[in-house]
């Protein structure tokens, strides 16, 4: 979970989050800075991708960039602010603006959004370590909100139902995406996949699992209802739930 942003830094943080939409700053004279904010964010994300969110400390980022830790505070007011910038940058990498389609294609647009979100959590598994309850107020967050709300409105839902439907949908998608990220983090930390973890516990099924106490689980197993490995099962379950939710939206 990321640190809460300090209130006094809010205006500065917002200016950093929305830096690409702000009017260009006056050209500076003199020597051009060796680093930019995007370099700091990219370095922090690379460390977090490899070693988890906690590893992306200000000291570690400074070391990667070859600058003193205190130098980073000329770019970001705090590590919490840096995490917000990292999260919003990751969300922007879904490139939602490139998902085309008119009102009649609302369903396909939402499926594309869901799959891109799941992939972003696979590429940046540390996103699963950040609370989604208080998202960064940046373009990545708001592009997502506008995208999903527009798709729900195009589905023909009454306007008073659009936001609840969007929240329900994104809650499901984020939960599935976080599961992907958590699996990658566990593989990084332990050196083994979740499938390998289950295979090491074969003795549980042989010596402890009671078929009489778990009749439904047993029937599903005998019907080959659990499919392939855990990652495959998770992907199948995600698509199943996604289609059922969208069926409900279509039905109004």
Question: Which helices and strands appear, and what pairs or packs with what?
Answer:
Layout: H1 10-17, H2 37-51, H3 58-65, H4 69-72, H5 79-92, H6 106-123, H7 139-154, H8 159-190, H9 194-199, H10 202-207, H11 215-222, H12 230-251
Helix pairs in contact: 2-3, 2-5, 5-7, 6-7, 6-8, 7-8, 8-12
Report on the structure:
This protein is mainly alpha-helical and 252 residues long. It has two domains: 7-91, Arc Repressor Mutant, subunit A (Orthogonal Bundle); 97-251, Tetracycline Repressor, domain 2, CATH 1.10.357.10. Helix content is 62%, strand content 0%. It contains twelve helices and no strands. Helix 2 (37-51) crosses helix 3 (58-65). The longest helix has 32 residues, at 159-190. The model is unreliable at 1-5 (pLDDT under 50).
List keywords for this structure.
2 domains, disordered N terminus, single chain, 252 residues, 62% helix, Arc Repressor Mutant, subunit A, mainly alpha, Tetracycline Repressor, domain 2, 12 helices
Gyration radius over CA: 22 Å
Name of the top-level CATH class of the largest domain: Mainly Alpha
Distance between the termini: 36 Å
CATH architecture of the largest domain: Orthogonal Bundle
**What is the number of helices?**
12
Uncertain spans, ≥5 residues at pLDDT below 50?
Answer: 1-5
In a few lines, what is going on in this structure?
This protein has 252 residues and is mainly α.
């Amino acid at each position: 979970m990321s640190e809460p942003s300090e209130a006094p830094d809010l205006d500065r943080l917002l200016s950093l989050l929305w830096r690409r939409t702000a009017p260009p700053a006056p050209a500076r004279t003199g020597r051009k800075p060796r680093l930019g904010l995007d370099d700091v964010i990219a370095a922090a994300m690379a460390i977090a991708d490899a070693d988890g969110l906690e590893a992306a400390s200000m000291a570690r980022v400074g070391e990667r960039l070859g600058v003193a830790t205190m130098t980073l505070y000329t770019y970001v007011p705090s590590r919490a602010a840096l995490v917000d910038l990292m999260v919003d940058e990751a969300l922007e990498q879904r490139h939602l603006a490139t998902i085309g389609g008119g009102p009649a294609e609302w369903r396909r647009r939402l499926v594309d959004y869901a799959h891109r979100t799941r992939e972003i959590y696979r590429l940046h598994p540390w996103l699963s370590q950040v609370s989604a309850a208080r998202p960064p107020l940046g373009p990545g967050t708001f592009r997502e909100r506008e995208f999903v709300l527009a798709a729900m409105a195009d589905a023909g839902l009454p306007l008073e139902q659009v936001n609840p439907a969007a929240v329900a949908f994104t809650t499901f998608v984020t939960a599935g995406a976080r599961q992907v990220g958590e699996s990658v983090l566990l593989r990084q930390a332990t050196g083994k996949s979740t499938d390998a973890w289950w295979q090491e516990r074969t003795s549980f099924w042989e010596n402890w699992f009671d078929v009489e106490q778990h009749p439904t689980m047993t029937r599903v197993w005998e019907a080959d209802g659990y499919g392939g490995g855990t990652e495959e099962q998770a992907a199948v379950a995600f698509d199943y739930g996604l289609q059922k939710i969208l069926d409900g939206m279509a039905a109004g």
